[in-house]
Amino acid sequence: MINAQAINGILLPVILIFMLKLINRPEIMGKYTNSRIYNVVVWAMGIALIMMTVAWVVGLVFGRFFGIHV
Q: Which of the two residues, 45 and 61, has the higher pLDDT score?
């Protein structure tokens, strides 16, 4: 179950970016597209999530490489 949640955390940024691109398409969402302020906030959160995921994976890889078990 822990491995499934780890994979879920890795795939979350990919799915989030795909959803944001869909939400911002007026031909799909019509008048319900995101506002500029909402886009800035959500993209900033998405970038922070991607950075945290990369930091976690790098820490996991280097921890195993140097013999540090987390």
A: 45
Decide if 24 is inside a domain: yes
- Model confidence at 59, pLDDT cuts 50, 70, 90, reads confident
Domain count, the chain: 1
Q: How far apart are CA 55 and CA 44, in angstroms?
A: 16
For tokens 């970016």, name the residue: 17
Tokens coding 44? 């900033």
Tell me the mean pLDDT in the region 7-13: 88
Range of the domain at 40: 2-65
Q: What are phi and psi of 25, to 5 degrees?
A: -90, 115
Q: How many C-beta neighbours within 10 Å does residue 10 have?
A: 13
* Contact by Cβ (8 Å): 29, 23: yes
